[in-house]
């Protein structure tokens, strides 16, 4: 296997010059730069990235830990994080925690060993001290785990207001809200707070149904919603805290002969791509996924460069009305 010394010998330059070319430091003539790159290609030289990151004290790698990459919201978020990281010459290590604290700890230890420039957390199942002692920039999404750890969140409360107010305006009088497990300390619980406030304000009847603690276990949604429809056949509006849950609610209504939106009006949350692929197309609260990905990368980079960042980063949501309401 070729070494940096072999490259220097082949190109007829010093090892220091080869290092400066690889790290793009100092003035190097185009002739010398070409000699070095030609020698690297001819020798099939692969720089030791770990050694280079130790030298630079920067790896240009960002860790991303999410609960489930199969979930459309998190797959779209991962896509945006990777896109914006690449614009800044960074790569992304994607870790799928499945809400398993043992697995999450393994991934965090791996990211620390690889000296990543920072970690974007879309999942946290460990004690807060595990995150405080990372000694690495960190940003969380929809989770406020410590006053000193910056987080990004959409305006969940406003999203819950927009969804519930729309159903009220459309004439719904008994509205079901299907949400994640409220025992989890998630900022998304504010969607439920807003739902309660709006239905109480208008005197509508409400039903709240929570998922199990593994809020991303999609196979359980059908069972939960089927039970809801059986116990509350007079529900005429549904506000689901994800588009996937809303899609399952649509399917269950159709299975039982209830028309959407004539008999039941449905609003989802996230506005992932699948929302506009459904028939009828799904009304949803749009989270600015591209802005979330861009801001997450920006906050990691700023912290890595020693800049101060705001702990709370709240982004606006938007009601996208389609055929289900």
From TrEMBL:
SUPFAM superfamilies assigned to the protein according to its UniProt record, in alphabetical order: lambda repressor-like DNA-binding domains, Periplasmic binding protein-like I
Gene3D superfamilies: 3.40.50.2300, lambda repressor-like DNA-binding domains (1.10.260.40)
One of the Pfam families matching this protein, by short name: LacI
Species per Swiss-Prot/TrEMBL record: Paenibacillus enshidis
Keyword Transcription: yes
GO molecular function: DNA binding
Domain HTH lacI-type: residue ranges: 2-56
Annotated CDD domains: HTH_LacI, PBP1_Qymf-like
Protein name stated in the entry: LacI family DNA-binding transcriptional regulator
Annotated keywords: Cell projection, Cilium, DNA-binding, Flagellum, Repressor, Transcription, Transcription regulation
């Amino acid at each position: 296997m070729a070494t940096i010394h072999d490259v220097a010998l082949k190109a007829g330059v010093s090892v220091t010059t080869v290092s400066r070319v690889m790290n793009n430091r100092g003035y190097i003539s185009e002739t010398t730069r070409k000699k070095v790159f030609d020698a690297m290609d001819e020798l099939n030289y692969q720089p030791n990235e770990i050694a280079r990151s130790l030298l630079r004290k920067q790896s240009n790698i960002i860790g991303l830990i999410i609960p489930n990459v199969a979930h459309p919201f998190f797959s779209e978020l991962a896509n945006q994080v990777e896109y914006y990281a690449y614009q800044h010459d960074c790569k992304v290590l994607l870790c799928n925690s499945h809400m398993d604290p043992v697995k999450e700890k393994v991934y965090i230890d791996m990211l620390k060993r690889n000296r990543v420039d920072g970690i974007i957390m879309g999942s946290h199942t460990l004690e807060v001290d595990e995150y405080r002692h990372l000694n690495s920039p960190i940003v969380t999404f929809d989770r406020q785990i410590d006053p000193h750890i910056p987080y990004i969140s959409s305006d969940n409360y406003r999203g819950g207001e927009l969804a519930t107010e729309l159903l009220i305006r459309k004439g719904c009088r008994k509205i079901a809200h299907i949400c994640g497990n409220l025992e989890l300390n998630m900022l998304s619980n504010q969607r439920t707070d807003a739902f309660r406030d709006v239905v109480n304000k208008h005197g509508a009847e409400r039903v709240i149904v929570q998922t199990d603690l593994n809020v991303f276990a999609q196979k359980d949604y059908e069972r939960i919603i089927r039970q809801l429809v059986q116990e509350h056949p007079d529900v005429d509006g549904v506000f689901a805290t994800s588009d996937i849950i809303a899609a399952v609610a649509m399917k269950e209504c159709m299975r039982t002969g209830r028309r959407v939106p004539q008999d039941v009006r449905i609003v989802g949350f996230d506005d992932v791509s699948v929302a506009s692929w459904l028939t009828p197309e799904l009304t949803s609260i749009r989270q600015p996924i591209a802005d979330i990905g861009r801001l997450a990368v920006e906050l990691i980079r700023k912290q890595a460069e020693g800049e101060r960042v705001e702990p709370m980063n709240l982004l606006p949501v938007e009601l996208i009305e389609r055929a289900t309401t």
